[in-house]
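Ticket opened by: R.M.
Priority: normal
Category: complex prediction / small molecule

The reporter submitted a protein together with zinc ion and asked that the result be attached to this ticket for the collaborator who will pick it up next week. Submitted input follows.
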Amino acid sequence: MWEESRDYNKAIDRYLEITETMFGPDMCDEIWNGCFNLAMNYAKDRVQDVVLVIGPRLLKISKFDSAAEVFEAVGFFEKAIEAYTQCQKWDRAFECAQQVRPMEMQHMLMNKIQEQKKSMLIQGGKFNKIVESGDMSGLEMLSQRGQWEECLSLANNQGPEVLNTYLMKFSKTFLQQGQFKETARVLVRYNCPAIQQMLPVYKTISVEVLAMDNNVELAVLKEMLQKLTENLESQVDKKNPIFIEFYRYLVITHLQLMKGDCQKHNLTVPLAQLSSSLLRYTKEIRADKAYLDAGNACRAAGLNDAAFIYFNRYIDLFDVIDDPDNAGGLDNTAFENTDIPSPFEIPLPEKNIIGPNERDHIRDWVLEIKVDGSVGQNLPQRRCDNCGDDMYECSLNCTNCQQNWEPCIITGLPLVKSNAVQCKICNKGAIREHWNDYISATMHCPWCKSMQTQY
Ligand SMILES: [Zn+2]
Ligand SMILES: [Zn+2]
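Result attached by the on-call engineer:
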């Protein structure tokens, strides 16, 4: 009635007497806002006082945006900002802060809002919002909490530089925990960037996984090294030592995996050749197992000379692993002039892979076959196709003329031109006879997995 009779001051007084105990919050909100509008339109001189009464009341009944708006309208920016903050209307809070002078005050308020916004986002786990606003501390927080999946996927959206920084941090943490396979998996997911500071990470994973001889881990390692070497290839030429080093790891990994493949398809002879070739990598792979596997595979293929020599070395290694002080008795004559590392250069595991009973079975076979006298004199030989000298069949280089050969991707044997064939897709070479055996069993190139035919 006061309002209708245009007695606005009286109307305002009356409205202000209404408290939150009389009506519900929505009703109060409406009444007080009406009162505020009356003052704005007809009693300008009273507006600030009205706001000082209704503002706190609106806050009390949790009508934060209403409170913020009335505070803002009369220039009570700090109070308005506080109210906007409470209802998380960050943009409005920033708008208010922009109107504040002097500038020092404005900056202080802007920072305060930023902090509050951030802590609210952190509480709600909304790190993506923090990062998307250009504040990389969100990534830092995620990494500290070990939420790597989210951290890396957000970092990925920020470009390669940010991604690489967090891939590095992730790798460091995971490698320290011995999580080689997991680290490799994640690196594969982010396409294995070939950058200098990551190279030690790739190297550690390669060294550790190769030493373990576990097919699941090896498969992940192969994927990682394939991507890495592809990336390296686009940056450096194939004679670059970094490329050579990682390509070598890739070949070893591939050949180690080929063992299971040949076993699965009963490729007895290729398996024997492959297991023999792998002995040249006994600095990288688990050495005692490599000799045991080579002995078993050669014996199964009827290659008794080689089996005899490899088993003998295995038994020697078995004894050294059992009693490391007793390494003096090792004899390397059988392996001279080969590319197989001497037993003094290879790292040995702490424990043997088989028990003494199984070892005795092997020893019995060795002693039994030795009775023949003609067995196990020499490792299998071939003629160097360059100088004609005799050399160990599996060596990738001739000690006489220094000729080098690439390894066959099926058996690891030296790829001599006269009997080499190539995959039509990846161009990797294999020895014709082993290629044909392998393709007839699997129909796929062992390196690139493309469909292939026999030659
Ligand atoms: Zn030669
Ligand atoms: Zn291929």
